[in-house]
TrEMBL record, chain A:
Organism of origin: Gossypium mustelinum (Cotton)
Biological-process GO terms, alphabetical: DNA-templated transcription
Sorted UniProt keywords: Activator, Coiled coil, DNA-binding, Nucleus, Transcription, Transcription regulation
GO molecular function, one term: transcription cis-regulatory region binding
Coiled coil, from the record: 123-150
Keyword Glycosyltransferase among record annotations: no
Subcellular locations according to the entry: Nucleus
Protein name: DOG1 domain-containing protein
Example of a GO cellular component annotation carried by this entry: nucleus
CDD domains in the cross-refs: bZIP_HBP1b-like (cd14708)
DOG1 domain boundaries: 173-378
Transferase found in the keyword field: no
Gene3D superfamilies, sorted: 1.20.5.170
Pfam families membership: bZIP_1, DOG1
From TrEMBL, chain B:
A Pfam family hit: Glutaredoxin
The protein, known as: Glutaredoxin domain-containing protein
GO cellular component annotations of the record: cytoplasm
UniProt keyword Cell membrane, yes or no: no
Keywords: Cytoplasm, Redox-active center
Annotated Glutaredoxin domain residues: 54-115
Protein family according to the UniProt entry: Belongs to the glutaredoxin family. CC-type subfamily.
Length: 385, 143
């Protein structure tokens, strides 16, 4: 009850305020001929707040209650006009003096109603804005929770890098992180399957299927990386999507292809072939690394170039951006190299050896992730006295 | 094996001749790449392709091109590198497509007068071990 009275009082001129206050109170308590009882009941502040409260609770139909309020307002205004007209109509010259104070009262009432209406509209707009913000906040919280969960699972930090990016980039990254979380789960399952299969001595044909799906799983990761690299290549290269220990070994957004080549036992022929592969792999890695260095030099000199004066660096930065697009090619080429090395290994090795190799590789990364988690949860260093 | 270059071809310093001379002087695997800027004369591009065992065409300052060159150098090949200016890019690409009979993209590696491929192909053939024999056959490698 107090709320709407207060809002009305605030909005109108202070000299009128007390008058209006009195008039309203009077009209509430004693229905006068000018005000129809039904109108009074609508005009009652409790009912008004009731309308607002329902609006808020229902959270769905602000429109219907708005029209109700508008209707009410129109009604009020129409009737106030008719009543004031009624009041003015019988005025004669000798009654003008007598009707003036009543006229003033009527005018103040009209002003009061107008102010009240405006106040209600403002309140409605404010509430609408609040509701929109609330919805947005819920969405953001949900996304943050999901991203944080992924981050916790991987034992790393991933949200920090998203601040300031456009919606598409963030959603591309969020999608990748979800997919990668699933990828790790599937990877773990495949490792267990391989281990069981190797211990159970299943046939080569069946093993071949496992090997193929294992390799295909890595190729799937390269595809995922390629997609998110187009959205934000720095994200891929920084390796924030991996655990901290994996990141330590990161080379152009992933593991070094030569890391695939820790294997035994091998026949003599295989040793030779693996040796050759190792060398080729190393050469290819070196070539790519040197290309990356060249790119760094190029970008660095582009950014540093030009006059040192303030605000004159835009062309340099724009040019540097163009050059940075080459980074996407580097990520793709690095993944291509990983893929080719994996395939060559599968050609050199027997099915069983390939299965063991995949198991060893998967186990290796699994242990790196465990190391990261352990590292993340290590007890804090004792503070010095 | 390294051949003695007769005086005549030393004087007829075409791009191809120059690279062979440098091979002789510097030995395979050492020394820099040879940067050429494609000028307007289209014939020179075809000439380059035909006369050189290995030639790499790429945009000026392209880092992928750099990767290809580093890889080839690491193998002991001394590739001729043709850095194409932006303005000449289309013309050169067009002419290379004519030679190839199909589309060409930078960086483009020509071996033995034919289009070999881009960085992708170089990488995969290198890993599978096919690259070195191909280069040897084309006379780009003498070891």
């Amino acid at each position: 009850m107090e709320e709407s009275k207060l809002s009305i009082a605030l909005d109108i001129n202070s000299t009128c305020a007390k008058v209006a206050f009195v008039i309203i109170s009077k009209s509430m308590n004693s229905p006068t001929p000018q005000f129809v009882p039904s109108r009074l009941s609508i005009y009652e502040p409790i009912h008004q707040i009731g309308i607002w409260g329902e609006n808020f609770k229902r959270n769905g139909n602000p429109n219907t209650s708005t029209s109700l309020i508008v209707e009410v307002d129109n009604k009020l205004e129409n009737e106030s006009e008719t009543t004031s007209h009624e009041m003015l109509a019988p005025t004669n010259n000798y009654e003008q003096e007598a009707s003036k104070p009543i006229d003033k009262i009527q005018r103040r009432l009209a002003q009061n109603r107008e102010a009240a209406r405006k106040s209600r509209l403002r309140k409605k707009a404010y509430v609408q804005q609040l509701e929109n913000s609330r919805l947005k906040l819920i969405q953001l919280e949900q996304e943050l929770q999901r991203v944080t969960q992924q981050g916790l699972y991987m034992g790393g930090v991933s949200e920090g890098s998203h601040i300031g990016f456009s919606g598409t980039v963030t959603s591309g990254i969020a999608a990748f992180e979800m997919e990668y979380g699933r990828w790790v789960d599937v990877q773990h399952r495949q490792i267990c399957e391989l281990r069981t299969a190797l211990n159970a001595h299943i046939s080569d044909i069946e093993l071949r299927i496992l090997v193929k799906s294992g390799m295909g799983h890595y190729f799937e990761l390269f595809r995922m990386k390629s997609t998110v690299a187009k959205a934000d290549v720095f994200y891929v290269i920084s390796g924030v999507w991996k655990t901290s220990a994996e990141r330590f070994f990161s080379w152009i957004g992933g593991f070094r292809p030569s890391e695939l080549l820790k294997l035994d036992p091998l026949t003599e022929q295989q040793i030779l072939e693996v040796c050759n592969l190792k060398q080729s792999c190393q050469q290819a890695e070196d070539a790519l690394s040197q290309g990356m260095e060249k790119l760094q030099e190029t970008v660095s000199s582009t950014v540093a170039g030009g006059p040192v004066a303030e605000d004159s660096y835009i062309p340099q930065v724009a040019t540097a951006m163009e050059k940075l697009e080459a980074l996407v090619s580097f990520v793709n080429q690095a993944d291509h190299l990983r893929q080719e090395t994996l395939q060559q290994m599968s050609r050199i090795l027997t099915t069983r050896q390939a299965a063991r190799g995949l198991l060893a590789l998967g186990e290796y990364f699994h242990r790196l992730r465990a190391l990261s988690t352990l590292w993340a949860t290590r007890p804090p260093e004792p503070s010095l006295p | 094996m390294q051949e003695a270059i007769p005086y005549k071809s030393y004087m007829a310093a075409t791009a191809g001749g120059r690279s062979r001379l440098h091979n002789f002087l510097e030995g395979a695997g050492n020394g820099g790449e040879h940067r050429l800027v494609a000028n307007g004369c289209e014939n020179s591009v075809t000439k380059l392709v035909v006369e050189n065992a290995v030639i790499v065409f790429g945009r000026r300052g392209c880092c992928m091109c750099h990767v290809v060159n580093r890889l080839l150098l690491g193998l002991g090949v001394n590739p001729v590198v043709c850095e194409v200016n932006e303005e000449k890019e289309e013309a050169v690409l067009h002419e290379l497509s004519v030679i190839n009979g199909g589309g060409v993209q930078f960086p483009a590696v020509f071996v033995g007068g034919k289009l070999f491929g881009g960085l992708d192909r170089v990488m995969s053939t290198h890993i599978t071990g096919e690259l070195v024999p191909i280069l040897k056959e084309a006379g780009a490698l003498w070891l």
